[in-house]
Amino acid sequence: MTHPSISPRAAVFAALVSLLTVWGAVMAVIAATSCRKETTTTTTALPAGPRAAAPGGTFTPGKPQPPAHADGAGYDFRPAERAAVERYLAANADLRVAKDGDQRPSGEDGDVSNLYGVYHPYFVRGDANDDGVLDFVLAFVRRDSDRDSPWFSVVVFEGRADGAFAPGAVLERDISLADGDLSLDRDSIVVTPDTAEDESRRYRWDPARRRHVYVRDDEEAPEVPPSSQT
Question: How far apart (Å, rounded) are the C-alpha atoms in residues 137 and 25?
Fold first, then answer.
């Protein structure tokens, strides 16, 4: 029953205001609940901890990676040599320069460091193509290879008359060289897989093909005594 002092129109208006107030309260509760759900979902989606290190620590296969750099390997590269190595690394981001420390310690049978004034097992200079211009041979290591079993690539950089170097030419790729080294023997680039063994692989410059080719010495050289021996 309507109170005599309140008109029907006023009563309807009051009822609408009350209904709108209740509706507003309900919507506020719904909005607050939705915000709490979104916050909870976002929190549970975060990773639990840092990602595991990539194989090799610096290189993730299948993902774009910045190339390694020539410096840091312990070699006193000349400016033109450094530029040639940097260009090669930029084109081969999966490689880094091989270091002296990549060679495993060897016993007395494999120790050749006393044969050289300065010995770097994976970097050697010389005239590898007999043109009177200095070249250099350098080994690289795959950045995703295991530290205990690195995979090497052997690359020769031919010197030019203007002092620069031609792009690196691969002699061997993905080989085991942790127990071996590189050297130049007159007209040959010598790859020795194990310095404790006598076996090695030789590459000589072929003028017709304009590149180094693998050569095999099938015939044993005759034993000739040194000239100082009587």
Answer: 80
